[in-house]
Specification:
The protein contains 8 helices and 4 strands. The chain has a 4-stranded mixed sheet. The two termini are 24 Å apart. By secondary structure, the protein is an alpha+beta fold.
Length: 213
């Protein structure tokens, strides 16, 4: 859990440093929208709207309300602090196992959504434990991430470790550090430092596909 806590703090600091109106890689969202999403996801019954379509419209409405309020810097800082303090004791996210499963990659990806929306950025240096936990999380979710790929997908790390994300004809191997592979898998391929190995046709088809959940 220390890595989840550290990731939460890193994401909160990125939100504060960027400010409420800073762009993110999440289409249509500024940092204030992202902060509202993070708070609602962990603390509101409407947070289930992330996966349950009947609640999605209510969740979106509440998110927009919070984001509008967060145009004011004081409200934005309060929203980020609420996220930084963690979920309420009544939230499923207060359970360590749930938090680890749900937040490990989520917090990393959203931190990069803020950092890489800038004109100048550099990849973070991650420690070994964090890297291996992110890799384990990626391999568990890989088939879901790449379910829409029209071609086979193999993820390959510099150390030689590989994961078959989708079994299909004309496979493409996506190569890069774990952090970059996660960003590609979650639909942020244009901002991920990866390389491809495969036929030109297969690579083009993969790039056109929608990744992520």
């Amino acid at each position: 859990m220390h890595l989840i806590h550290a990731s939460r703090l890193a994401l909160a600091e990125a939100l504060l440093a960027a400010g409420p109106s800073a762009d993110t890689l999440c289409t249509g969202w500024e940092c204030r929208h992202l902060a509202a999403h993070l708070v609602l996801r962990e603390n509101s019954p409407l947070g289930a709207g992330v996966v349950l379509k009947p609640l999605a419209s209510k969740l979106e409405s509440r998110l927009q309300e919070l984001a509008e309020e967060a145009k004011k810097l004081d409200n934005y800082v309060g929203l980020v602090r609420r996220f930084r303090s963690g979920p309420s004791k009544f939230s499923p996210f207060s359970i360590d196992r749930v938090s680890t499963a749900a937040n490990l990659s989520e917090f990393f990806i959203h931190t990069e959504d803020i950092r890489r929306a800038r004109t100048q950025w550099a990849p973070r240096v991650l420690d070994r434990e964090y890297t291996e936990m992110l890799w384990q999380d990626l391999t568990r979710r890989a088939r879901m991430y790449y379910r829409n790929s029209p071609v086979g997908v193999i993820l390959a790390r510099p150390n030689g470790k590989r994961c078959v994300a989708k079994k299909a004809a004309k496979p493409v191997t996506i190569m890069g550090p774990v952090a970059e592979l996660i960003l590609h898998a979650s639909g942020r391929g244009d901002n991920a430092l990866v390389t491809y190995e495969g036929s030109e046709e297969s690579i083009k088809a993969l790039k056109k596909a929608k990744m992520g959940f």
